[in-house]
Design goal:
It contains 8 helices and 14 strands. By secondary structure, the chain is an alpha/beta fold. Belongs to the ETF beta-subunit/FixA family.
Length: about 270
Amino acid sequence: MPPDAQSSSATGLNVAVLVSIGRHPLTARTRRADQDARAVEMALTLSGASVSLMHAGQHDSDNEEAIRGYLGMGIDEVRLLEQMPQADVVPVLTEALRASAPQLVLTGTRAETGEASGILPYLLAEALGWPVINGLAAVEKVEKGVATVLQALPRGKRRRLRVRLPAIATVDTSAPAARQSAFGPARRGEFDVQPHASEADSALTQWQIQPARKRPKRLKIVKSSSARDRFKAAAAKSDGGGGQTLNDVTPEQGAEAIFKLLREEGVLR
């Protein structure tokens, strides 16, 4: 257990952690996803809780090696819901969670491969009718079906929340770092492979996915003969100039303003 991790009382709590295949940002090799590993770490620090891992995707050698990174954290078995490539995993995960009925579901905020939209927990919560907590930093205690948790806010702030279980919570880099994966437990861990019917993700099949390229930064041309003025222009922060602050507006007005901005930027047509 990392030195900054604290054990929370959660006797009898059934926790399911949804894990995904990660990708190293430099080498692009498959690995355990950082945020999902932090979710596993948080689950393991809950004293008295029963922790299970669940993954929906392909069962091949590359994915198996990545998932063994989670088993090396001290997990005996991972439940693998086998799916075809580019399948919509929401239906199979919804069915599995409804059948296993965990009280708390933990997962990373977003995946490191695939769409990586971060919308999966919200789709699952909508299908199951459960509340969602984003940016979970810690679980303080669980009593009488109510969890007291800390939610991470910008600039290192925390907010204490009480949420009725069952619930889904997303974990990001504000949570404690995951422990190292041990080779022995990773090799001894087992896979409970369960074939399931796959539903094609119709939207994803129409996309063209390619590696992102770093675009060159456009430099501002300074028309000045003074070295002092040129230095000030280079060091000054550029202002967007197109920002707009909305105060005391209705949800409909806010949504309309966002929709208008997306149309202007060419995101929506």
